[in-house]
TrEMBL record, chain A:
Gene3D superfamilies listed in its UniProt record: Periplasmic binding protein-like II
Keywords: Periplasm, Signal, Sulfate transport, Transport
Source organism per UniProt: Dechloromonas denitrificans
Family affiliation: Belongs to the prokaryotic sulfate-binding protein family.
Entry protein name: Sulfate-binding protein
Pfam family, one: SBP_bac_11
Task performed by this protein: This protein specifically binds sulfate and is involved in its transmembrane transport.
TrEMBL record, chain B:
Origin species: Dechloromonas denitrificans
Recorded superkingdom: Bacteria
Every ABC transmembrane type-1 domain range: 74-277
Database matches in InterPro entries: CysW_permease (IPR011866), MetI-like (IPR000515), MetI-like_sf (IPR035906), Sulph_transpt2 (IPR005667)
NCBIfam families: 3a0106s02, permease_CysW
MF (Gene Ontology): ABC-type sulfate transporter activity
Name this protein carries in UniProt: Sulfate transport system permease protein CysW
Membrane topology: Multi-pass membrane protein
UniProt entry tagged with the keyword Membrane: yes
Length: 335, 298
């Protein structure tokens, strides 16, 4: 009797869930934290484009969270038709579980990254601590907010940008870089799991002197919350390439490959690039990049491939269990 | 102040037993401490929720609650509670009945296990279902092959909710039924009642207030659960977000008025729950006094 009740109500629940899903075509885009506003705009534009082109109604559902956590979700069975994550390693993890082919990053232009971004500092109005560059972050009275590199893509870009800066300093080497990063994380007050949580901690809860943030996230905070903050662009940062892919296993199961593919390609179209730029992502298209050039500060950007030998290598050296991050980071309670 | 009124009415003998014969200032101090704790930790946050929710006026409030994603979250929350609460009601009565009326090996173990969801962190409660039903989990492959979605879909959310609200009804009933013993049931059986009649006419009337109390608490938790549901939800907006998850998403999108609007619904639920709880407590107290009076009379 009891088992029967359980089974029948579970069936009822899945039928109800099916009704909620019912639409002509629906796609699930599993993305990282700060892209909420970007995809809200882009999904509306794509639905309109697809309707005009094919007559089909397409609904795009969104799920957002820390990039590593989202990749984990897809591996555990979250049925994403497309994954738009913060960095290539999180999508490599999908390839390692055979959800997508190993050469996924060659399937779309620009390393499968339709837009790029970088890491900047968000400080409080008037920059009371006088933070201008990475070396100002290690001063003892500076409280830093960054998400956790173990779960957040943005945080891994933060960390690597700081590492690249330390290497570039006169007499810079691996040992000194490790020491520098260690000092930075000593000043970290709160380690949220995703970029948006870290932003909320900084801007809403008012904790910390500086937030290491995605450029797009920093500009969005300025736009949403007015002039309580300032953006500081350091002398050197990293070219962050958030890549995208169709999740082959899901689209083959759902029969959504064509529309999923078109969805991603549309990100590279003139309209897609405009929407990205309007949401403070750096567009790849040269013409649109020129149009929005004033919006983005010019600074030297290193790349993951040249400075760190690609994401797989960076992940292994710095963020795997027992890697450099584990060696240098001691939670503030245990110091 | 209330103390002075009590004194004026000559309630001295009743209230001033040797154990409470403290100087006036100690009483006032204790009452003051309790009241300020209550104000700071309970009343302020509750008021803040409603103030924030209505900051931008009724229009924004209603718009936030009638948006597609908010309605989907409310529907999903109600659906989850509508499945989890009756199941746990059924389970709770069965378990309490078995434990209170029968002796069997493993009884103590069963009581301990019923408490497990109370003692385990909600994150673990969610993760066990990822381990069981995730694509890499024990049964994940079988379910995927049969195209049954559990994790990151409604069934997973329902399962996690059932798990965390598992003990509420049983925990409420076990002590009550144990205290009542089984004499009345035995009498009913001797008089020729069938098993069902015994339950319906003898046991249920004795436990109804406790049962209702357990159901109210179970429902409140089912609607309010965040941690376990967050792990198994997948956070697909408009589809697998319950109300507490929706509040977090809105808050993280700088959409404070809407976040607090949905939060105010949950706060209202809490207030209604408390009201019902007080009512039920009063009724069950009345029942107890009546049955005591009856015993004394006989």
């Amino acid at each position: 009797m009891k088992l029967k009740t359980v089974v029948s109500s579970l069936l009822a629940a899945s039928v109800l869930a099916g009704n909620v899903l019912a639409a002509d075509i629906s796609l699930l885009n599993v993305s990282y934290d700060p892209t909420r506003e970007l995809y809200q705009d882009f999904n509306a534009a794509f639905a309109k484009y697809w309707k005009a082109k094919t007559g089909d109604n397409v609904t795009i559902n969104q799920s957002h969270g820390g990039s590593g956590k989202q990749a984990r979700g897809i591996i555990d069975g979250l049925e994403a038709d497309v994954a738009t994550l913060a960095l290539a390693y999180d999508i490599d993890a999908l390839a390692d579980k055979a959800l997508i082919p190993q050469d996924w990053q060659k399937r779309l232009p620009n390393n499968a990254s339709p837009y790029t971004s970088t890491i900047v500092f968000l400080v409080r109005k008037g920059n009371p601590k006088g933070i201008k560059d990475w070396n100002d972050l290690v001063k003892p009275d500076v409280a830093i907010i960054t998400p956790n590199p173990k779960t957040s893509g943005g945080a891994r870009w933060n960390y690597l940008a700081a590492w690249a800066y330390a290497l570039e300093q006169p007499g810079g080497n691996e040992t000194k870089a490790k020491e520098f990063i260690g000092q930075i994380f000593k000043n970290v007050k709160v380690l949220d799991s995703g970029a948006r949580g870290a932003t909320t901690t900084f801007v809403e809860r008012g904790i910390g002197d500086v937030l290491l943030a995605w450029e797009n996230e920093a500009y969005l905070s300025l736009k949403e919350l007015g002039d309580k903050f300032e953006i500081v662009t350091p002398s050197l940062s990293i070219l962050a390439e958030p890549p995208i892919t169709v999740v082959d296993k899901t689209v083959d199961k759902h029969g959504t490959r064509k529309v999923a593919q078109a969805y991603l390609e549309y990100l590279y179209s003139a309209e897609g690039q405009e929407i990205a730029a309007r949401n403070f992502y750096r567009p790849q298209d040269a013409k649109i990049a020129a149009k929005y050039a004033k919006q983005f500060a010019k600074t030297r950007l290193v790349t993951i491939d040249k400075s760190f030998g690609g994401w797989r290598n960076a992940q292994k050296v710095h963020f795997s269990d027992g890697g450099v991050f584990d060696q240098i980071y001691v939670p503030s309670g245990k110091r | 102040m209330s103390a002075t009124i009590a004194l004026q009415h000559g309630a001295l003998e009743r209230y001033e037993t040797p154990s409470t014969r403290e100087p006036q200032w100690i009483k006032l101090l204790l009452i003051g401490i309790a009241l300020s704790f209550f104000t700071v930790f309970l009343l302020f946050p509750l008021v803040a929720v409603f103030v924030e929710a209505f900051r931008k006026g009724w229009g924004t409030y209603l718009a936030a609650l009638s948006s597609h994603d908010a309605l989907a979250a409310i529907r999903l929350t109600l659906l989850t509670a509508a499945i989890a609460v009756p199941l746990n009601l059924f389970f709770g009565v069965s378990a309490a009945w078995a434990i209170a009326k029968f002796e069997f090996p493993g009884k103590r173990l069963l009581i301990t296990l019923i408490d497990l969801p109370f003692s385990v962190s909600p994150v673990i409660s969610g993760l066990i279902y990822v381990l069981l039903f995730g694509a890499q989990g024990w049964f994940g492959e079988w379910f995927a092959a049969h195209d049954i979605k559990i994790l990151f879909a409604v069934p997973g959310i329902v399962l996690a909710t059932i798990f965390v609200t598992f003990p509420f009804v049983a925990r409420e009933l076990i002590p009550l039924m144990e205290a009542q013993g089984s004499e009345e049931e035995e009498a009913a059986v001797v008089l020729g009642a069938s098993g069902w009649q015994v339950f319906w006419h003898t046991t249920l009337p004795n436990i109804k207030w406790g049962l209702l109390y357990g159901v109210i608490l179970c429902n409140a938790r089912a609607m309010g659960e965040f941690g376990a549901v967050s792990v198994v939800s997948g956070h697909i907006r408009g589809m697998t977000n319950t109300m507490p998850l929706h509040v977090e998403i809105l808050y993280n999108e700088y959409n404070y008025a809407a976040a607090f609007a949905v939060a105010s619904l949950l706060a209202l639920l809490a207030i209604v729950t408390l009201g019902l709880k007080t009512l039920v407590e009063r009724q069950s107290h009345k029942q107890k006094t009546e049955s005591l009076a009856l015993e004394n009379a006989s």
